């Protein structure tokens, strides 16, 4: 296993060394070599114990023979996994003294109450090219524990509106000289910690360097200002005699004051005048006029429906004038069927088409679907029909007379008229 690991590590180092051309590339190559070194050490740590010692020695010798390093860059030997590491406190979280590129999160530090100098046992949580995140498994020793003198902490700082921090719970923010100052939280930290006015945070910085001031931890609770009761000047003897009474809510006199008001009476609404329709006798119109025609040339001769007695006439549309049409055709002996202009009632023409002699459609008082249905039935059964615009009753009656006359002539030619007589 370790032989394959060393061969792969050698290939990676040689491949990356071939791409080094500038000083910046050299620095990146060194970081990648350190990452490969950590990978080899972890592989050696998890290798079987009986073959680990010999493999590490042989592979170290092979690595020195295959890789030609510059004289100014020393080769870091492969280290074994230690039983314990020395914890070093940083601004946020901490590092391990014996493990370069290691990092311990702030949450682990607070969960284990770690201090600067403690010896801890860790395990690798995740690893990348930049650093290795370690998890604390146990605290081994606290003999060399001490506080980091270069780290300054402001505990439980109060966040105000717009991310301004001026004081803590115990007092205002002060530097080493005792001068008060304030800190404005950057927008990135406001979004990352989701800070709001009234929340408490811990601020840290390196001693004498205010530019390193940052937020290390956010507390889950918010700050509430304590309520201070005003001291009374009454003697204590009188205070002892005071009997506490149950607190009752004070009733407002708003309802009583409202009842005392004299509201202005609302003005009475005037009664609406209902107009009764005038009683008029409907007389059939026997005259009509063509648009633009003088009254002297209007045909005033009465219409003659005597020949069409017993025939059936269907009028479609203008259902408001049903009573007028029936009153007009009643003395003529013509069977009048008046249908509304909607699509539902127009379907009845399919049942009446075979026994209908003439059809007149009022185009201005009928729907498109109804008119199309009526025309289709009329053409199907060969019934005379007319599309009449509603200009007046005389024009409608004239159209009815013409269609009945066409039907009468058609029956006369076919001989049906003699059979009916």
Radius of gyration: 54 Å
Number of strands: 14
Which sheet architecture does the biggest sheet show?
5 strands, mixed, barrel
Helical content (DSSP H or I, runs of 4+): 25-40%
Q: Can you tell me the residue ranges where pLDDT is under 50 for at least 5 consecutive residues?
A: 51-65, 75-79
Q: CA-to-CA gap between the ends?
A: 121 Å
- What is the global morphology? elongated
The computed structural class is alpha/beta
Mean pLDDT: 79
Q: Gist?
A:
With 421 residues, the chain is an alpha/beta fold. The protein contains 13 helices and 14 strands. A hairpin with a 4-residue loop joins strand 1 and strand 2.
Structure description:
- With 421 residues, this protein is an alpha/beta fold.
- The protein contains 13 helices and 14 strands.
- The protein has a 5-stranded mixed beta barrel.
- Strand 11 (312-316), helix 8 (322-329) and strand 12 (335-339) form a beta-alpha-beta unit.
- Helix 1 packs parallel to helix 3 (49-66).
- The radius of gyration is 54 Å and the shape is elongated.
- The relative contact order is 0.06.
Which features would summarize this protein structure in a list?
single chain, 421 residues, alpha/beta, 5-stranded antiparallel sheet, 14 strands
Write the layout of secondary structure elements.
Elements: H1 2-17, H2 23-45, H3 49-66, E1 85-89, E2 94-96, E3 99-104, H4 106-112, E4 119-127, E5 132-141, E6 151-159, E7 164-168, E8 183-184, H5 187-193, E9 199-206, E10 214-222, H6 236-241, H7 254-260, E11 312-316, H8 322-329, E12 335-339, H9 343-346, H10 349-352, E13 358-362, H11 368-381, E14 385-388, H12 393-414, H13 416-420
Parallel strand pairs: 3-5, 11-12, 11-13, 13-14
Antiparallel strand pairs: 1-2, 1-4, 2-3, 4-5, 6-7, 6-9, 7-8, 9-10
Helix pairs in contact: 1-2, 1-3
